[in-house]
Design a protein that fits this description.
single chain; alpha/beta; Rossmann fold; four-stranded parallel β-sheet; 7 helices; about 10% strand
Length: about 140
């Protein structure tokens, strides 16, 4: 199983039953089997998604805590080389992305890895940049 860059949009889908799909589930299996890498802002994005969900009454604090524990069981590595702000600015500018989405694309480009995302704008930018969308093996 090959390694890939994991976008927060996929990981958040694992948390909400009404947002998960076959792609997200297969990406989770791939993360367990082969591991994924995420930019250093990933924990901030995950925490923000949980905070917003709790404030909107979609989940409880206890469910958020269980989800965070389940993430610890996956093979998700945090990138140890954060890009400079200028690099994120350039990628964001070149591909019309937020600096957050630019971090995922920058990491995929730098590492030569495919990108697992459910974000259409990020998927389009990745294709334009020559970054493949991660295609997990089909689930049995």
């Amino acid at each position: 199983m090959s390694r890939f860059v994991l976008d927060c949009s996929v990981a958040v889908a694992w948390f909400f039953e009404d947002e998960t799909d076959v792609y997200a589930d297969a990406v989770m299996d791939a993360a367990v089997a082969g591991g994924a890498i995420v930019p250093c802002l990933w924990h901030h994005e995950i925490a923000n998604a949980l905070i917003v969900a709790e404030r909107r009454g979609r989940v409880t604090a206890a469910k958020s805590a269980r989800y965070l524990s389940s993430l610890d069981a996956l093979r998700i590595d945090l990138d140890s080389v954060p890009p400079a702000a200028g690099e994120l600015l350039a990628v964001g500018r070149d591909f019309a992305l937020s600096s957050y989405d630019a971090a995922y694309l920058h990491l995929a480009m730098r590492e030569g890895l495919p990108l697992a995302t459910r974000d259409r704008a990020l998927e389009k930018a990745a294709a334009t940049a020559g970054v493949e969308r991660f295609a997990p093996p089909e689930r049995p």
